[in-house]
């Protein structure tokens, strides 16, 4: 019997186009089931490991066992936006699949499927690299060199208990891209138990919008420019794309003669706005998330004049403002001084491997806190009447930060990798 080589040739051709720099059409179709292979699909065996030679496979020493344990699947692809359609479900068992992309970006949340039921879901993942025009590169920090966000693969994590039957991956050019510029409160945090609103917000949007998170822990407006991250964003931005800008925590520590909320911070923030407009992009200024800074049972402002300076730049430059500082102040006050710890990285010793001391961080969020703050950002998007709101999966859903979701109702299948090392910045 002659073997059908067409599916293999399709994957090989896509991989070859990637390697040779011909990026016009990148498309993959994978079948993870045990029955007859669907036409045009490539069969993936449950223990088929990723290799650079194949360009796809299960990654990080995981396999798809069907036992409910999480697994990773990676495909080598070039920079760009990718439409991913997954068919979830198992012929014999119920499942509840959560999908995270790259550095733990939440794409699908707890998708239930009964035994024998198969559900299709589509989402958009942005893949970035550090290359800029004319051979320049983003100056990455050493800790970024191992981040999934910066490698040459598209990596998806399935948890839940998960069940995956099929997957289609297609490079698309018609998405509105929302670029995120910020610090550790925005960046895609790689490791448990850390989280940011930037890695949670994709879950709330349907295809048509892609989030490209260029934030990094410890950055200021100045170091974002100095490490060529703004230049990178502008090099790939197209007309109609957005740039969300949230800085302040680390800028507050700059103590030079021209530093300060109404000096270098204001000047640099205007630079972000002006350069984005030159590209036909839409800048959105986001005031800094509040720290967990309670006095006499209420949050007090620990960010000085920086939130006010951001508001004034938004007004003077006539650009949209999301007052996340005000929204998170309301959120943390509603949670209260003690219960708000459940939104931050506050854990007793031995909660995570290698953690011999308690974690008590009043700046950085856990995944519950990050999820609630992403809902605050969405309310800000709607209040600012941004066209992005029409791409929300549930545009009628309302979130009141004065009435946060109960932490007991939060379900997050933890990723295998954790770290007790605090992100840069404070």
TrEMBL record:
It comes from the Bacteria. Keywords: Hydrolase. Residues 399-426 are annotated as: Disordered. The keyword Hydrolase applies. Residues 28-103 form the Beta-agarase/YXIM esterase-like galactose-binding domain. SUPFAM superfamilies: Galactose-binding domain-like (SSF49785), SGNH hydrolase (SSF52266). Pfam families: AGA-YXIM_GBD, Lipase_GDSL_2. Residues 399-414 have a biased composition (Basic and acidic residues). Residues 182-337 form the SGNH hydrolase-type esterase domain. The keyword Hydrolase applies. Transmembrane segments: none annotated. CDD domains: Rhamnogalacturan_acetylesterase_like. One of its GO terms (molecular function) is hydrolase activity, acting on ester bonds. Belongs to the 'GDSL' lipolytic enzyme family. This is Rhamnogalacturonan acetylesterase. It comes from Candidatus Pedobacter colombiensis.
């Amino acid at each position: 019997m002659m073997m059908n080589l067409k599916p293999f040739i399709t994957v090989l051709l896509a991989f070859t186009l990637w390697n040779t720099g011909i990026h016009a059409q990148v498309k993959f179709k994978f079948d993870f089931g045990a029955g007859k292979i669907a036409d045009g699909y490539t069969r993936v065996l449950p223990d088929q490991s990723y290799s650079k030679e194949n360009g796809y496979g299960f990654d990080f020493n995981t396999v798809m066992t069907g036992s409910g344990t999480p697994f990773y699947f990676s495909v080598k692809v070039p920079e760009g936006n990718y439409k991913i359609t997954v068919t979830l479900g198992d012929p014999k068992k119920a499942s509840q699949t959560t999908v995270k992309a790259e550095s733990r970006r939440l794409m699908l949340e707890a998708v239930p499927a009964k035994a024998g039921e198969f559900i299709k879901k589509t989402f958009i993942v942005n893949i970035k690299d550090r290359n800029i025009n004319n051979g320049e590169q983003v100056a990455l920090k050493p800790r970024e060199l191992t981040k999934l966000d910066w490698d040459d693969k598209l990596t998806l994590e399935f948890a839940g208990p998960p069940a995956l039957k099929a997957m289609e991956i297609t490079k698309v050019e018609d998405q509105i891209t929302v670029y995120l510029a910020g610090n550790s409160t925005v960046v895609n945090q790689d490791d448990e138990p850390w989280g940011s609103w930037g890695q949670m917000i994709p879950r709330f949007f349907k295809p048509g919008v892609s989030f490209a998170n260029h934030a990094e822990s410890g950055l200021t407006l100045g170091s974002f420019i100095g490490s060529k991250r703004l230049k990178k964003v502008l090099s790939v931005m197209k007309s109609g794309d957005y740039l969300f800008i949230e800085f302040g925590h680390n800028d507050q520590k700059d103590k030079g003669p021209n530093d300060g909320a109404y000096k270098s911070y204001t000047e640099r923030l205007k630079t972000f706005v002006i350069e984005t407009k030159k590209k036909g992009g839409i800048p959105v200024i986001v005031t800094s998330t509040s720290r967990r800074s309670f006095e006499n049972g209420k949050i007090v402002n620990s960010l000085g004049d920086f939130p006010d300076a951001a508001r004034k730049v938004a007004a003077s430059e006539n650009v949209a403002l999301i007052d996340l500082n005000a929204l998170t102040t309301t959120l943390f006050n509603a949670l209260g001084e003690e219960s708000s710890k459940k939104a931050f990285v506050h854990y007793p010793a031995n909660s995570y491997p290698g953690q011999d001391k308690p974690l008590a961080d009043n700046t950085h969020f856990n995944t519950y806190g990050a999820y609630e703050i992403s809902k605050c950002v969405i309310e800000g998007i709607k209040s600012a009447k941004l066209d992005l709101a029409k791409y929300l999966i549930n545009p009628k859903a309302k979130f009141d930060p004065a009435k946060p979701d109960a932490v007991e109702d939060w379900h997050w299948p933890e990723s295998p990798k954790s770290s007790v090392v605090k992100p840069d910045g404070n």
